[in-house]
Write a structure and sequence with these properties.
93 residues, 2 domains, two-stranded parallel sheet, 2 helices
Amino acid sequence: MQNALNVVAKWAVKEGLNISPHKTAMVPFTNRRKIEGLGPLKLHGKDIKMLDEVRYLGVTLDSRLNWLIKISRFLFFLTARLHLRHSVAQRNL
């Protein structure tokens, strides 16, 4: 995995792109309970953090690729909007 990351980093430098290790995260997509063989990855000499979930373009991707987190956040958003609408309607009465 580290070799593939090194290839991508070299390609990015060659193309004039900069990959920030502080903004980079690794999420292993698997149904296994234990993840073996994934040691700490380094980008430009700095460790890349391993996360259980990451948000990309407004979509939350978790390590099991289920939609539970996305649905629960969406329901929270809808509930907040419903309460706001209800309070505005009560003021107008």
